Amino acid sequence: MPLSENNISQRLSTSLRGMQILLNVCESMRLLMSEKKEGTVYYQMSQMARRYLTSSSKESLLPWIKFYSETVYPCAQHSVHAVREGKQQIGKQFGDKNMNYFDVMYSSREQAVLYLDVMSSAWNICGEDVVTAFDLSSFKNVYDLGGNTGALAKKFISAYPQSSVTVYDLPQMIHTARTYDKLIKDSQISFQEGDLFKDPIPTADMYIMARVIHVLSEDKCIELLRKVYTACKPGGAVVVVECFLKDATDEVITANTQHFLMALATEGKERTPKEMSLLLENAGFQDVQIKETGKIYDPMIGRKVLK
Ligand SMILES: C[S@@+](CC[C@H](N)C(=O)[O-])C[C@H]1O[C@@H](n2cnc3c(N)ncnc32)[C@H](O)[C@@H]1O
Q1: Is the CB–ligand 1 distance for residue 102 below 6 Å?
Q2: What is the whole-number distance in angstroms between the Cα of residue 196 and the centre of ligand 1?
Q3: Relative to the CA of 161, which of 15, 84, 232, 261 has its CA 20 to 30 Å away?
Q4: Measured from the CB, is residue 245 less than 6 Å from ligand 1?
């Protein structure tokens, strides 16, 4: 229901002046719509705000916003050091410079639960586009490496009901997600604990690696992709899903901002499609192709050809 600025400021116990300024800013950002009736301005949420900024919406980005404001943006005060040293600063922000990104993510119950919600929320918006960009129906036995709670695996199973997906992730992630009832429940999705660098990667027809490469250093990307190539069945494939950088001439603020934030918080970075395809080819994958979904994440497929 539309509310006047007086009404909103009273309900939220704010000054009228402060609320008027905030309402103007929110309207200019198209988060609110206003309407003047008999000299009074009434505000209501825009469709976009209802869709992405309400906790009841299936496409809510509230966990994402909380995560960025509490975890990622605070690291930005260390930007100067990130640039000088070329190293992540997340450990420093969270009290121990030796902590890496995932040590921080799983360091407390609140942090872990928020992180799991953030990871899952993206796939409510672009998961279907990502899994259907290529026809992946011929791949029946699929591993989602670093697959988190199984949110993308769920989208995969919905698109390809004849397949099954094993979500492979760190034990601490799977334990936390199980404790807080965050693991996806589906008869075609199972979970396997393991460390991609220390434990074997089981053989499969296809591997999904969504937002896994971009947190890793160049050396680790190569090591991991070679390990995946070795494990992959001939005729199989890897599908890497990332927020790709576009040409330098393109003004793609999302990917470039993400690029900087990755450097601030992880050992990784975002890559152009060319850089990613070179990594896949270096590991042995062939016939590398990318599909643009028009949303933030795009899939790139690389195949292990039958000899
Ligand atoms: C950035 S998240 C992406 C999660 C998921 N693929 C998605 O896109 O929603 C990276 C995931 O990789 C997992 N991970 C990190 N290092 C790992 C390792 N060494 N072995 C297995 N999983 C790992 C994390 O626990 C996390 O779930």
Answers
A1: yes
A2: 9
A3: 232
A4: no
